[in-house]
Amino acid sequence: MSSVSKVGAVIVAAGRSTRMGGIDKTFAPILGIPLIAHTLHRFQLSSRIDQVVLVLAKDSLEQGRKLVQEGGYSKVTNVCAGGRRRQDSVRFGLDLLYACEWVIVHDGARPCFDDAMLQRGLEAAADCGSAVAGVPVKDTIKLISSNQMISETPDRSLLWAAQTPQVFRYRTLMEAHKSCNQDVTDDAAMLESLGHPVKMFLGAYENIKVTTADDLIIAEAFLKAAYTPASPN
User: Fold this and answer.
1) Which of 26, 124, 149, 165 could form a disulfide with 106 if both were Cys (CB 3.0 to 4.6 A apart)?
2) Which CATH architecture has domain 7-226?
3) Rounded distance, CA 80 to CA 89, Å?
4) Dihedral of CA 213/215/219/221: which sign?
């Protein structure tokens, strides 16, 4: 990938935190600062990232903009409201990026990544235009029918659990968003449904997505052990 290729990022944090017991996970404290600040901090420090759009729930916009300003996250060029579906939120973020050849889509609730992972993603995407972080599954996976009967046991060696960051050529991802009408769980699935090749690259087992209150404890342990904590200034 050319060193002059501009890279933008869309950080998606517009979910409703329905499994958090009333806690807004985006701003839940980890090591004394909001979860989303850890994610922003790592994108801010990365020399590979030129600009960031942060997508939040509508009622969190004021809080998010204040955090960006007070944290000095100068790469964040826009903070916008998300949509009904995750893919709508990503699309709103894409619309606000400018002059980017590549875009990284990342869950705001995944703070335990590092710059080396971003680099692996960019290198993998350079091969075919799209790449997704993931890890090999550790457990045996069973496919079941509607009545809970096992129908198949897939070969575990071929199964990976998908994560973010996910890296795409900007033009390809934007065209996919314009063309795909079905609901998808991530942007990679959108490109797959349209026949685009997508490469998997190694994420990390520590790169968890915070979805429950217990996940906050786990993420805090990973951040404390392996990463330099973000600073609000």
Assistant:
1) 165
2) Alpha-Beta Complex (3.90)
3) 9
4) positive
From 48, 50, 46, 81, select the one nearest 64 (Cα to Cα): 81
CA distance 133 to 121: 7
Q: 162 forms bridges with which residues in the sheet?
A: 134
CB 131 within 8 A of CB 124: yes
For the chain, which residues make up each domain, given as ranges? Answer: 7-226
148-163 pLDDT, tens digit each? 999 999 999 999 999 9
Query: For residue 225, what pLDDT is reported?
Result: 84
Residues 142 and 139: their CA atoms lie apart, in Å, by 10
Distance of CA 45 to the CA centre of its chain: 17
- What's the alpha-carbon Rg for the chain, to the nearest Å? 17
Tokens matching residue 169: 């050529």
User: In 133-158, which positions are buried (b, 16+ CB within 10 angstroms) versus exposed (e)?
Assistant: bbbeeeeeeeeeeeeeeeeeeeeeee
Measure the CA–CA gap between 138 and 142, rounded to whole angstroms: 13
